[in-house]
Queue: 2 jobs
Job 1
Amino acid sequence: MSLEKDIESFVKSVGLELYDISVVREGEDTIYRVSVLSNEIQNERKRSVTLDECVNLTHLISPLLDVTPPLSGDYRLEVGSPGIERKVSTLKQFEMSIGERVSLVLKSKDKIKAKLLRVEDSKIILDADGEEISVDFPQIVKAKTYFEW
């Protein structure tokens, strides 16, 4: 099994969903970042991931990375939530963001802000001011969730 699949198994074992794994450089530091979401819905949106859940998951994943390092050289493991406003770049991430508001930039340069209703094959179905619209995933250049205050 791949390292990402092993990490995903640990994430699922504590009742969370793996959103993304990325490697980021911040100054001199290299960070192996594991982003997770909750499965639970509270007040019509996903419950926030707690600090205790992140710490627990860090303790589960860290020994795995000691045996199977994801990178050569020094790095720091960081487990956390991708946040309420986050980049959406895969169909799986769109599926995990159903019910949230998304902002899209299309290849045609059009911009759309709407509520994500569902994902059907490679189509993203949105509610834009009461009108249901469909966008082909390959037409999306940039996407993120956003919170309306």
Note: The mean pLDDT is 92.
Job 2
Amino acid sequence: MKKPMYYALLAAFAATPLAASAFTPDDYLAWFKANQEAKPQFVDGDTITFDKGNLIRPFIPAEFADEVIFQGMDVKIKDAGDITPSDAYKAATEKFKGTATIAADGALENYTAGRPFDPATFKPGSKEDGWKMVWNWNFRWQNAGLRVGEVHWVWVRKGGDHTNNEIMSDAGGKYKQFYQGGGSFERVLTGPYQRVMFSHRSELAATNYKVNNGEGFAKGTEFREYTGFTAPFDIAGTAFLILRYDDPRKTDDSWAYIPSLRRVRRISVEVKSDSLLGTDHTLEDFYCFNGRPLEHDWEYVGTVNMLAVARSRNTHTVYYGPNGWIPLDDWALRKMDVIKQIPKRANHPYSQKFLHIDRDSGECYYANSFDKANNLWKVWQLTKAFTDDPQFKAQATDFDGEPTPAGLRVSSFQSINVIDLQNSRGTLVPCRGIGNPNTDLNVVKKILDVNYLTEGR
């Protein structure tokens, strides 16, 4: 009797260590196809240890499976429950259903608020549905945006340990509990982050779904985003500011403040796809994809059932594993829509990238990218927390943040971790002190106006 395809592929992938340079988009798509046939051999409440690791292998992309499955692994299977967005977002989706359209160049038109398109209607291989899916992603439920009091950017080298790194004793050792397992820590950057959404705000029906009715500082703006660094000393004060316009055809305005130059400089679109201060991330990689959709082409690939940390049991991300870059947490089986990103710019570092977006929450939990030779380069794994859970509410007070109001139903950012498989290194980006940003324009201007960028918060 012929074995199902996914068992054959599982055996092949498990038998041979993965070499990033030998793993191509076709190999990823082979896993994708096998996933369509895979049936879970685990149930809610199971704890998967190494001897049972192959039970979860079909539900983790082949290029990432060996990072999650290792001697000493402890993967708790736990259903995430209802993580659909807020009632306001659902109401806006229903109210404006069928009004949004895709222009010939891929731009979103006639959109007001809510989810622009129904992914249940999308067809694999469709370019138009690829555009629809990326706009769904762009306008997922984010409420007012995101404020993070403290972001760590931890450079991790595969192998070794980090027991003697200063982060393990900083602040009386309060970080030690978060960084378990192995991996050599080469450098840790620290700083705040804030994004404020100004338009298409489902909860602001009374002001035309916009902050300040779309007037003044909010005029013509989709969002503003600030990324700052306060440590170590050689980059303290460095900051980046991005202004995304509501017109999808209008290029971002982006600036950087470099303390050594004591001046603010505009940054180009190319800079946003370059390494961010030596990390394995780029500004465009935030959230899985943070660029302008029209700078890329898109294709809808289909759906997969995939394990993800969709509703963290932890107040803050806890890492473990041989290289210290896997979250020790609850993993839920989620239905995800997959889209392929193909950069239009010839000098973009990626040839293509696959994003995995949760059908219910709209959040991205995993991505991979390939270099110009179409060899696997990086993988991203994201951990989410649900704003209505008590463990999420606790983290704000742990790091002097303001508590998030109840009932927002946001799948909030907790961490994004990238592994450069070609160079055996990664960057962990845990976020602490997370909350809902203040959208009072008098407050926002002092953080998200280029005229304040030199103040280095």
Note: Helices lie at 5-15, 25-35, 62-68, 87-95, 127-138, 390-398, 441-448.
